[in-house]
Amino acid sequence: MKKSMSKGLCETCIRKDECTYIRMNSEPVHFCEEFTSGCKGNDGFEFRTESENVCEEGYAGLCKNCENRKCCSICQKGMPVWQCEEYI
Amino acid sequence: MAKAEREINAKPRKRSVYESVKLQFEKAADLMNFDPNIRKILSQTQNEIIVHFPVKMDNGKIEMFTGYRVQHNNVLGPYKGGLRFHPDVDIDEVRALATWMTWKSAIADIPFGGAKGGIQIDPSKYSIAELERISRRFAFALGNNIGPEYDIPAPDVNTNAQIMAWILDTYLSMVPANERQRCIHVVTGKPIESGGSLGREKATGQGVVYCIEEWAKDKNFDLSKATYIVQGFGNVGSWAAKLLKPKGSKLIAVHDVTGAIMNENGIDPDDLAAYVKKNGGVKGYHNSKPIDFETFIAMNADIFIPAALENQITDETAPLLNVKLVAEGANGPTTPEGDIILNKRGIDFIPDILCNAGGVIVSYFEWLQNKRSEYWELEEVDCKLRKKIVPAYKKVRDTAREFNTDWRTAAYIVALRRLEKVYQERGIFP
After folding, report:
1. Distance in Å, alpha carbon of A87 to nearest chain B alpha carbon
2. Where do the H-state alpha helices sit in B280-406?
3. Which site among B158, B159, B337 would you substitute to test the A interface, given the most A Cβ atoms closer than 10 Å to its Cβ?
4. A18, A45, A48: residue with CB nearest B258
5. What ipTM was estimated for this complex?
6. How far does the CA of residue B331 sit from the closest CA of chain A (Å)?
7. Contacts of A30 in chain B (CB under 8 A)
8. CA gap B81, B77 in Å, rounded
9. pLDDT band, residue A39 (cuts 50/70/90)
């Protein structure tokens, strides 16, 4: 059993060089659960998530740029705060 | 012997995907004495839409793209099927996949027809912003050829929940403001926050496990003592394995894109899934030893779940299998020649068109939830999935007995009977 030339989905799959699936004929692949494109992210693209509101240090919402964030006892990393009387 | 059966039994040759789909249809139609007039109708697609549309690239230049939407049949309900972005997308492939969706919806007894579409594009060559504009402009070009009660796209190769959200947003922008909230179900496979359904991610694997449970009941087989092997540890394979774990079944070998591993004492699916997520494949997994493909395919186990790609069980590999059941989680894992050998060897198989229908069934649930403005709990989704797929399993099993045929042909007969009945009741206009 030999691996045949890449066809169909395999042509643009970034894992084609390491792929161990055996291709017994020259039919192009139309379905593959492990097809991985060259796009960002495992399943193709990056999803937009709430993480856009989280800055590099992990602070979210108003805390993201609050001057008190490092000494604040109220805010929690990753939890966005949208109303705060102490916000500077 | 009927023409279609002779063709299948003939020496293996290269067939286009559309030829393969038509051949299986003809085989089932011959066996059930399918109404010749309805056969003519179902032998062709109803609508084939090709759109050429311009999109502005990041560098300011305009590029032209070609998109397809093929609508095979909508006698049971709105057209339903995925959109794929791939350079190989062509009308022949899309026709085949659209036709296949008609059979799949009919077997699962959900009120959908069959469609498929896509854009001839290599998405890795475009930025996310360009892909957004391409997706939106494609949706605009399709216009009212899609719609929540007419044709409902879904994710497929290289498309995902984000792209569905863009298509949804573009479609909503094209309908009158006071109708927008009634059109959320124009696509399925949406992000949860935008109207997606809980349970969609594991749906196909869950459906595979429900089918295996029914098979075990039929055979009076104790799943807690079962051993099984899985090919492909992506979404379907890993979920099927994780959901079989509470039943007490033992995973003893896995083959994926990176290689094959085995451990006769059992592999923990949850631990392996975590390893695969981190390392990109099963290769190097601790608590197992590496094996080659020939050893994997010949493993002595009760159940084999092919959940990777097409044409893996062939005239070369089917004789090596050492299992009682093949539960087809992947699409098209068995060639027609492989089918013949499985049947000769008395190895049971649950055909892909039934076994992996969990995905389209939960897409239907997403569509229903959107229509009714409801959000179902995960338990409700699972329960309703079982109530759909188990009767479908029983129908295929009973039809196989009735026609003394294999389960794949029986599955097609179930689908064709459903379609035939509706056409006979409704007649042909005028």
Report:
1. 29
2. 293-297, 336-345, 352-355, 358-372, 378-403
3. B158
4. A18
5. 0.81
6. 6
7. 17, 93, 96-97, 310, 331-332
8. 12
9. low
Of the residues B157, B202, B312, the best mutation for testing chain A's interface (the one with the most A CB atoms within 10 Å of its CB) is B157
In chain A, domain spans: 1-47, 54-88
Choosing from B104, B116, B190, B388, the catalytic residue is B116
Indicate the pairing of strand B114-119 with strand B62-73. Answer: antiparallel
Q: Which CATH number fits domain B46-183: 3.30.870.10, 3.90.1150.10, 3.10.20.30, 3.40.50.10860?
A: 3.40.50.10860
Q: What is the pLDDT of residues A68-88, one digit of tens each?
A: 887 887 777 767 778 887 888
Contact B236 A33 (CB under 8 A): yes
Measured between beta carbons, which residues in chain A are less than 8 angstroms from residue B314?
24-25
- The domain segmentation of chain B, as residue ranges, is 46-183, 203-355
Q: Between chains, do B311 and A23 touch, taking CB under 8 Å as contact?
A: yes
User: In CATH, what number does B203-355 get?
Assistant: 3.40.50.720
A44 reaches B (C-beta below 8 A) = yes
Shared fold status for B46-183 and B203-355:
yes
How confident is residue A41, by pLDDT bands cut at 50, 70 and 90? Answer: very low
Least confident of A47-51, B181-185, B325-329, B366-370: A47-51
Number of other residues whose CB lies within 10 A of the CB of residue B238:
25
pLDDT, tens digit, 9 for 90 and up, residues B16-43: 778 878 889 999 999 999 999 999 999 9
pLDDT digits (tens, 9 = 90+) for B266-296: 999 999 999 999 999 999 999 999 999 999 9
| Residue B116 appears among annotated catalytic residues | yes
How long, in residues, is chain A?
A: 88
Omega into B290 within 30° of 0, i.e. cis?
A: no
Over residues B325-354, the pLDDT tens digits come to 999 999 999 988 999 999 999 999 999 999
Cβ atoms within 10 Å of B192's Cβ, excluding its own: 13
* CB of B108 closer than 8 Å to CB of B76: no
pLDDT confidence tier of residue A37, bands split at 50, 70 and 90: confident
Site of tokens 């059941």: B325
Q: What are the backbone angles phi and psi of residue B128, rounded to the nearest 5°?
A: -60, -40
Is there a contact between B309 and A29 if contact means CB atoms under 8 Å apart? yes
